[in-house]
Amino acid sequence: MARDRGRNAERSRIAHHAARLMAEDGVEDYALAKRKAARQAGVPDSRQLPTNDEIDAALRVYRLLFHEDEQRERLQALRTKALKAMHEFARFNPHLTGSVLNGNAGKYADIDMQLFTDDVKAVELYLINRQIPYKATQSRLYSGEEPRTFPVFTVNDDGTDILLMVLATRDLRAPLKTSAAGKAIDRAKLQAVEMLLAEP
After folding, report:
1. Residues contacting 164, CB < 8 A, separation 6+
2. pLDDT in tens, 12-29
3. Alpha-carbon distance 198 to 88, whole Å?
4. What span, in angstroms and rounded, lies between the C-alpha atoms of 186 and 193?
5. Do the beta carbons of residue 114 and residue 94 sit within 8 Å?
6. In this structure, what are the phi and psi dihedrals at residue 107, rounded to the nearest 5 degrees?
7. Which residues contact 63 (CB under 8 A, 6 or more apart)?
8. pLDDT tens digits, one per residue of 121-140
9. How far apart are the first and last CA of the chain?
10. Which of 56, 58, 177, 139 is nearest to 105 (CA)?
11. Given a cut of 80, is residue 173 above it in pLDDT?
């Protein structure tokens, strides 16, 4: 029992260290933040590392305590850009995901979006025809324990990268995760983001 309490205290300490790194240093990668935080806390045992959800909770507390007004303004600006992009790509059924949706977007946050279409080429042709500069990459998500690779088109809106991950229409009904053991990715369609922006 005492060992479990000690382990939980270590996890909490690492989560708060990681949250500070993400809030103050602009670290967006959870795995990197965990490793740096564990080194700072002097915890070599990787089994003690907190989950992304634990870091998110610590991040919300940190920003509420130290950056409440700044965070609110940043989030409003990013969600406004996200909504603009969602209108731009409305024909591809866009859904907002990631830190801009959950409210934990940091200083250098990207906007993560999922597009749902059975014609990936149509997205690329749309970008080309509208003369929107983009970079094409790939990213991996998990459907259950099965890893799947999806195309990602990155566009830029006045210094903010918008990552457009293209999924098949059937994937809208499937819970997708960033890791095999993780929880399903939250996503919000255009009307839900409009409601978020309308909140005081």
Report:
1. 89, 94, 113, 115, 123, 152, 153, 154, 155
2. 888 888 878 877 776 777
3. 20
4. 12
5. yes
6. -60, -35
7. 23, 71, 104
8. 999 999 999 999 999 999 99
9. 44
10. 56
11. yes
